[in-house]
Hints:
- By secondary structure, the protein is α/β, with parallel strands linked by helices.
- The protein has a single domain (7-194), classed as Spore Coat Polysaccharide Biosynthesis Protein SpsA, Chain A (Alpha-Beta Complex).
- 43% of the residues lie in helices and 19% in strands.
- Strands 3-2-1-4-7-6-8-5 form an eight-stranded mixed beta sheet, with helices on both faces.
- α10 (199-214) packs antiparallel against α11.
- The N and C termini lie far apart (42 Å).
- The model has no long low-confidence stretch (mean pLDDT 92).
Amino acid sequence: MTPQPSLSVVLPVLNEAAGIRDALAALQPWRSAGVEIIVADGGSSDGTAELARDLCERVVSSPRGRAAQMNAGAAATRGAALLFLHADTRPPADTPALIGAALRDGASWGRFDVRIDGRPALLPVIAAMMNVRSRLSGIATGDQAIFCSRALFERLGGFADIALMEDIDFSRRARRLRRPACLRARVLTSGRRWEKHGLLRTVLLMWRLRLRYFFGADPQVLARVYRPHHD
Length: 231
């Protein structure tokens, strides 16, 4: 019988053909060390699933939506710990060791600091603000590569099946049980939406959406506002 992996990585993807092989190629040393890679495809029309198939343990199909895809991917994993990684985010090479150390030290979930890849000079400032805010609030975003023990994920029932803010909702519920491990090692995430839509406009949009969510706005309504600025 194959031993249980210490870590399973779930990548929710949708039409990521341009970059999915590079993203998965970077994780191949982890696979050689026993880390399980699961790709959760939300109905890509560009061949993403086919391109990913030989570079991961399994590709699972799911209805479109990051929460639904991550839950479907998690259901196919066997690892004692789970890492939810965006396809346009590049983690440090020693990520499995860092997550293992955090969980052994008593954490049940956590996230990484983030660095945003792109040309605008203010991107490092925005990333620094994201990291500080997350450290103070105990709230993590998907760009920060959220990880958790399988026991916590199952206790929380996974991600809420909502159209947007599933990472915020998960963080809130997990935070009630334990503060996150806020790792200072940095993942590198794509700045494409910042460059496409403008720094100030993107920052203000995200603040506005999170404020509306805080005051009870329907995530489905928020997703309709967010999607044109993300696709």
